Amino acid sequence: MEIRHLRYFVAAVEQGSLQSAAQRLNVAQPALSRRIRDLEATLGCELFQRSSRGIVPTRAGYAFYTDAHAMLDMLNRSAQRTRRLGLQQDREVRFGIAHGTPRKYAFLGAAMGQFATDNPEVGIAFTRGSSYALVGELDEGALDMALLYERRADTGRLGERLIHQEHYVLAVHPANPLARSGPVELSELVGRALVWLARTDLPDNLNPLLLQLRRHGLEPTIGHLADSPEEQLDVAVASAGICLTPASTMLAVSDGQLDYRPLPWLGTKLDLALAWSGDTLSPAGVRLLGEVHTAIDRHQAAIASGKADWASLDGHSLIDLPD
């Protein structure tokens, strides 16, 4: 059995016709038909019911389609991952970015831009992922440094700098009844369906946002469960809904798509931190780390001076700086 057997079979199932499958794969129909017959001979059963109206998978064919599709999907993901690693393997510095951070915080792009100007010969390999996954790669030596949400650099060999702590806000579609100015009262959220972010990296009993809501006596009503922050915001915009989100969301969503209200009673904050390998940085890595620290200094100074508009809302501070 060869990979092309699986590709031909999956295309035939999805197209419902050998002729259409051959056109999709840009192969001759007789060749595709022979390969599928070879596959049936190898498996010892018929995979299709054939008629003048086309082909329909048998029960065995449906079962094999599910597995074949999964195998091809895994193979494609493996090829993409290998290709990405091949492109990055000769680059000197490996930098991890938590989901959404580059689009929110201008200091990161400023640091990278200055470093590229001063070090045009140095390549940087970027890895995007969850903070939990990135810390694991830092621990294993697969990354040199990373920008993280929620502080997870617990081992002694990793350095860490807390950049700031963000309060949560209520993001509201302008057409939603809760789209008005002023802080949100707890009673306003009772029974309101939220676009809720699923935390696949944390069980509910460790989800800090959910725990804090429950401490205040509020069991959230979940109208939609989103797999990513991007999906959460997309659904809130599309459904004229509401969601609880870190203050920096205001930096990533176009003006007019969502309104925002502070949640002064909530108390939960989201840490943004820089973590790095404390003992294995190359000279180029040390230079990049220094550039990122300088950019963070400017970022913190802008917040402290009141120049960062998104750091407060309706008279309520949304960002806390470390002492």
Q: Key features?
A:
alpha+beta, Arc Repressor Mutant, subunit A, D-Maltodextrin-Binding Protein, domain 2, 8-stranded mixed sheet, two-stranded antiparallel ribbon, 11 helices, 14 strands
How does this structure look, described?
The protein folds into 2 domains: 3-88, Arc Repressor Mutant, subunit A, CATH 1.10.10.10; 93-323, D-Maltodextrin-Binding Protein, domain 2 (3-Layer(aba) Sandwich), CATH 3.40.190. The protein has 11 helices and 14 strands. The chain has helices spanning 3-15, 18-25, 29-43, 59-88, 101-104, 106-118, 131-140, 186-189, 208-215, 229-238, 283-304; strands at residues 48-51, 54-57, 93-98, 124-129, 145-149, 158-172, 193-197, 221-226, 242-246, 259-262, 269-277, 312-313, 316-317, 319-320. Helix 1 (3-15) crosses helix 3 and helix 6 runs antiparallel to helix 11. The longest helix has 30 residues, at 59-88. It is globular and about 75 Å long. The model has no long low-confidence stretch (mean pLDDT 90).
The first-level CATH class name of the largest domain: Alpha Beta
Number of helical elements: 11
- Beta-strand portion reads 15-25%
Quick one: biggest sheet? 8 strands, mixed
Could you state the order of secondary-structure elements as H and E?
Answer: HHHEEHEHHEHEEHEHEHEEEHEEE
Overall 3D shape: globular
| N- and C-termini, Cα separation | 63 Å
Poorly predicted parts: none
The Rg value, from CA coordinates, equals: 26 Å
Mean pLDDT: 90
Q: Might you state the CATH topology name of the largest domain?
A: D-Maltodextrin-Binding Protein, domain 2
Number of self-contained structural domains: 2
